[in-house]
Design a protein that fits this description.
By secondary structure, the protein is mostly helical. It folds into two domains: 1-47; 48-80. Helices cover 85% and strands 0% of the residues. It contains three helices and no strands. The protein has helices spanning 2-45, 52-62, 67-79. Helix 2 (52-62) packs antiparallel against helix 3. The longest helix is centred in the first third of the chain and has 44 residues, at 2-45.
């Protein structure tokens, strides 16, 4: 009977110690993941997009569109 009480008390002490160390690893890991996620979302939202006129000029310069199409789209952009 004495041995059973000793075994129980040893397990309880060891269990509390293990839980304590577990939190010391989990909490910093969760904090880091939270920070990394917020930073990633913020960077994605702040990403700059080129202006439509700049895109049109680049497409014309690359030869993707001809002069007539360029002028037509330029009029459409300037009208809006």
């Amino acid at each position: 009977m004495e041995e059973a009480k000793k075994d129980k008390s040893k397990k309880t002490k060891r269990g509390a110690w293990t839980i304590g160390w577990g939190w010391m690893l989990v909490v910093p890991a969760m904090a880091f993941l939270s920070w990394a996620t917020k930073k990633g979302i913020k960077d994605a939202l702040e990403e700059e997009h080129p202006a439509p006129l700049t895109i049109l000029k680049e497409r014309y310069a690359k030869g993707e569109i001809d002069r007539n199409e360029y002028e037509e789209k330029l009029r459409d952009l300037l009208a809006s």
